[in-house]
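A.,

Following up on our hallway conversation. Structure tokens first:
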């Protein structure tokens, strides 16, 4: 084992020296060949180094789009999705007539999808990915990837629904009932088919009731009346809701105050 370790280290050093020499070489044909070999061996870091170096040199040649294509995939396989998305998008804009154009446009959308974080975080990449998948399907309506794109869009939309719901509910939990009513209504406007629809409408009702409870005298009547109106909307849509008892209690309290 003690003999093996120095031998392995020697091989690493020799290999590194050869690679450095290759980077400095002006034998671009050899660089291209070795870059493809490194790529095939899944040594994406070294392959990318060579491809990046060859980009300006082979610009305008038959190999130009191939070099760009593999360089983008090197970033992808190294899980540098932001950089890969940039390269795939740049490929589409630079080599729109390439046989790889359709694939790279899909990969731009897919890399952006992979950048989308969990629902509690900022969803900018989710919106971008949905837009990019939609653009891809409009440009390639007969693509075999259409079903895959639809699946990713649905997954991303579900994440947006959850983000919208959780953000709106946060206002309610913080006791900011006026802001909660606005945010919850906006969530319903944006995602009317949300699985949280019943709870959201109930929370709007409850927020209106609690807002009325904590209002100054000259605004209480108007806000209790709004609670009553919201109750009718809620029970009209969800007559057997799990929240029905609590909703009815708030309705009765509101009605009692309005009568007096």
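Then the amino acids I'd put at each of the 260 positions:
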């Amino acid at each position: 084992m003690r003999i093996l370790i120095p031998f392995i280290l020697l091989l690493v050093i020799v290999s590194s020296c050869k690679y450095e020499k290759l980077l400095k070489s002006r034998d671009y044909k050899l660089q291209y060949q070795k870059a493809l070999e490194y790529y095939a061996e899944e040594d994406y870091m070294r392959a990318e180094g060579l491809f990046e170096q060859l980009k300006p040199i082979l610009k305008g040649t038959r190999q130009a789009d191939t070099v760009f294509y593999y360089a983008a995939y090197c970033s992808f396989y190294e899980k540098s999705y932001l950089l890969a998305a940039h390269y795939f998008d740049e490929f589409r804009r630079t080599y729109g007539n390439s046989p790889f154009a359709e694939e790279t446009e899909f990969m731009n959308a897919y890399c952006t999808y992979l950048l989308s974080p969990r629902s509690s975080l900022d969803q900018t990449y989710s919106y971008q990915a949905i837009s990019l998948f939609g653009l891809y399907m409009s440009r390639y309506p007969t693509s075999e990837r259409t079903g895959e794109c639809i699946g990713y869009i649905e997954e991303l939309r579900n994440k947006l629904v959850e983000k919208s719901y959780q953000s709106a509910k946060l206002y309610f939990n913080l006791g900011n009932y006026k802001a909660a009513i606005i945010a919850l209504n906006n969530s319903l406007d944006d995602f009317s088919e949300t699985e949280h629809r019943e709870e959201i409408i109930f929370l709007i009702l409850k927020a209106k009731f609690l807002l009325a409870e904590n209002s100054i005298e000259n605004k209480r009547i108007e806000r209790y009346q709004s609670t009553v109106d919201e109750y009718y909307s809620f029970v009209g849509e969800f007559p057997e809701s799990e929240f029905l008892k609590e909703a009815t209690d708030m309705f009765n309290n509101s009605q009692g105050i309005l009568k007096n």
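The radius of gyration is 29 Å. Curious whether your intuition agrees with the design.

B.
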